[in-house]
Predict the 3D structure of the following.
Amino acid sequence: MPTSATLTLNAATVDYDRRGHGPPLLLIPGGVGHGGMLGQLASRLVDRYDVVTMSSRVASTQPDTVFGDQHPESHAEDALGVIEELFTEPPVVFGFSSGAITALELLTRRPGHVRLAIVHEPPLVNLLPDAEHHRAALESVRATARVRGLAEAQALMTAAMTAPDGDTETPELRHTGAWLDGYADTEPEPPGPALSELLTRLGELQPVMLEHILVPFTTHEPDLAALDAHSRRLVPVAGIDSRGQLPYRTAAALATRLDLPLTELPGGHLGPVERPTQFADALKALLETP
């Protein structure tokens, strides 16, 4: 069973779960940043790693808290605080979606605190040649959430993120381990009881996601020069099932800008959540490749 606790960092509350033994590994979830999303993945990594799954300052706070816009810079400072409090050496940091943007900002600001940053589909739309189109679509999601309700805004966001889009220059692709063998015949895993119960909490936080996280994170301008200077510590990854979709394209664009290969892993944008066993096996293979 994981050890669950809370830290107070930068005038914010940050919850975390810790389990396993071995080299340090920090998991940063996407969306509103609830660590429970990665609970099943974490449980499949404990045989090799000291795994800490953090929740964001949004997901860690009581539901009646009033939030303003969230930004990768402050979330990266929270991740830094978790590292300084819990680890005695720089961890591998894995983040997906908005968590990947946080991980990039952490590497940019405090590279000495990160052994390796594995960033799964950071949806940084300004990396794309058609960025203006995507910024407008995401602004429309935010405006719809504020005026016409969550259901319509959620549908717009899903369409913006998953609809096949324009061509993107494809970097060198690579795979890890043997997970690709027979992969086409596999299905996502059913969610465990803890993840099913979490959906209610995530629903309560969806207004914060659509109104205060989506646009500030997706339109964030990463410091490409700083990332290039530390590219030895950076691994862009993407889900094989999201080829052509917006988050895959942004991951590919990041890899191309930094002249790095793009590593494909199981699943789509939610591969770490929907395919935790396959994803954990592929992630272990990636981390253990010389």
